[in-house]
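Aggregate trends can hide what the representation actually does to any particular protein. The sequence in question and its structure tokens are set out directly beneath this paragraph.
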Amino acid sequence: HQRAGHPVAAHPRHRLSAQFHEPPPQFAGCFTSLYHLTLDLPEGANPLTDHLQPEWGNIRFFCGTTPDAAIGGHALQGARFVGTGPSTLPCRFTIGPVRMWGVGFLPLGWARFFDAEASACANLLCDGAHHPAFGHFANLTDTLCDPEATPDEQLAALVDAMTAAMRPNRDEPRIARVHAALVSGEHASVRDLADACAMS
């Protein structure tokens, strides 16, 4: 590269690849996606810093570097298994080379896979292995971070674990109704949303 007659050093670029897997039919309405991400950085490059927008709850398993992350007043370093509750705030993170598996939970999925109230975990960022809402997924860390396992084997293990963990919830019809009304964009106030869902 040259600028005004002077050579300009090329900046090393990171390489990011992601694979999104459609959840099997038995999980319809539970997940945003199951995904596998790989981030490669040139030797000596600085870690990547970025933000995640507010989102539904997630679990993420980091193989390689671990993130330095923060949501509001919650900050986290060094965790291989990161749990996040539904958020209304962005998540700032810094991370180096990594392979990561993630699962995003829609409201129905939260009801089927978690014993904790979503409101109690709002804007939460935690070491999932040591938090009661997320700890039942901690045993996935070794499998999803096993360098000898293929991505297909890891995906199969993830699906098996989710199948074993899923349980029905008596509020599923109401959850589906409120979620559909919420994302429709047709309601300008909480009162309108409650009326549409036949709730107080």
About this structure: The helical segments are 107-113, 140-144, 151-165, 172-184, 190-196. The longest strand covers residues 31-40.
